[in-house]
Amino acid sequence: xxxxxxxxxxxxxxxxxxxxxxxxxxxxxxxxxxxxxxxxxxxxxxxxxxxxxxxxxxxxxxxxxxxxxxxxxxxxxxxxxxxxxxxxxxxxxxxxxxxxxxxxxxxxxxxxxxxxxxxxxxxxxxx
Length: 127
Hints:
Blueprint: H1 5-8, H2 13-18, H3 20-30, E1 33-37, E2 42-43, H4 48-59, H5 79-87, E3 90-95, E4 100-102, E5 109-112, E6 118-120
Helix pairs in contact: 3-4
């Protein structure tokens, strides 16, 4: 039986509910990052909207995804989140597919870098 990351996150609900900054960090760490459980189960980084909704529901404070959506740092896994997730058997294994923007006239493709800048995608950079 495979693990379910979203189910396992319930173990972090109290911390997320009591510490808004932890909830924000958790949102960032789940966005555009892939996770692997100790048993080998993988979870591909969720969309920003989906993860925002997931964290809002986890907190149980009548928030919605917009309270987290596009807050910056998406894909960043802080030490605190890494430790909390490791305690429930999950490890971040890097970025999922990076955000892209395409100029359909010129064919230029840019990807969102770790520092939040748009950079031209080079051949072979595709995830």
